[in-house]
Every structure is written in structure tokens, then in C-alpha cells.
Amino acid sequence: MDFPKVLRPGQAGKIRIKVETGKSPGPHTKSVTVKSNDPLQPAATVQFTFDVKGS
Amino acid sequence: MLDYRSMKHTTLSAAILVTFLLFGVMGCSSSQQQTNATPASSDQPAQAPSQAEASSSQSASEAPAPQPTAPQQQAAPSPIGSPTVTPASSATPGEPAPKVPAQPAPGTGSSVQPAAPVQAKVTVAPEPGLDTEKAPKLLIATPQMDFGKQPQDKTLNRAIAIRNTGKSNLLIESVTPG
Question: Is the pLDDT of residue B14 over 70?
């Protein structure tokens, strides 16, 4: 995973992720947890879903 | 007229005394209320006419007939018909006087004591709020993403957009799956 270490106030960034779809067909749900020094939200979760087509 | 009023007063006071005695006996044991109530009610009319006769002997002989009849009619309903009403109105100067200060005293004491700590808690709450105003804030634009239908054994490269909407530097410590 690639992510910026520090973001200044107002600055935007991108967290680059790689997801392996795998061999099992059907819907899948995965998530990524971002930990930071945000006192109100020290651990934020990003959830993403995808549907693997069968062969 | 004065004799009639005095006799009325004496009969009423006698009825009040009887009701006090009744309530005193009822206060000792609630199970004996019914047993005591029946003889007391039977005694009340007996006392009322006796006093009426005594007062009638003291009063002038001009109107003996209306005086005994009138107290009997008044004395009979007052002890029997309203045993609970007469002590309530007549006993208010005597008995409820200690009850009224006794109820507000604990009520006011208990209501004042919790009010003070609640205010103290409210004053404590804003202190951490001041720190959070200057703190960094992580904003994730899309906390849920749908990649749609994907083939098997494929690597998806995606990007999650983030922004620091706080007023100090945001330090991203780690990004871990799961």
C-alpha cells in the first residue's frame, strides 16, 4: 500500500491499494483501516465490494 | 342562637375527637380498622345525643325541640358520612404541619445536591473540545467503494482519496487491510 505520511491542513492525498479478486466467484467485501493522529477518528475504515464472475 | 352555636360546636368537636381516636386506633393496626370502625361508629351517635342532651339542659327552655333535632341531624352525618374529611380539615393545623416541612426538606436537599455536580460536569466537557478544534481531521471522500463485477485472479489498483480538514498536520501512521 502506498499512502502519504503527512498531510498539512487542507492538503489532499491518495492511498493506493491493490486488491486480488481471487478465484472464488460471487460477491466479496474487503476493507482497509487507516490509523492517524486524528483524535476524533484515530482509526477510519474504508470498505469496498466487488463481484467475481464465474468461469 | 348562641346556645345553638355552642351546642353545634361541642357536637362537632366531639365528633372530631372521636374521629381522632378512630384514626389513632387505625394507625396502630390496619387489620383492626374494620373491627374498630363499627363500634366507633356506633359510639358516635350515642355520644352526640348525650352531649346534645347535656347542652340542651344548660340552654334555655325556649326552643328545646329544634336544638336536639338539629344536632342529631348534624352530628349523625359528620362522624359517619365524613370520617376522612373531618380529620383532614381539622387536623391540618395539628398533624400536617410537621409533614409539610418534612417532605420539602429532603426533596429540596436531594434536588440541590445533584444539580451542582451536573453543572460541574458541563463545565468540564468543553475543555477537551477546545483541543479538538485545532486537531487534525481525516476526511475520506468515499468510505464505501463498489468495484462492480470483476474477473477471477485479477489485481485491482485503486486509490482512496483523503484530505486533512483539520488545523494541524495529519500524520498517517498505518494503512492495514481488514
Answer: yes
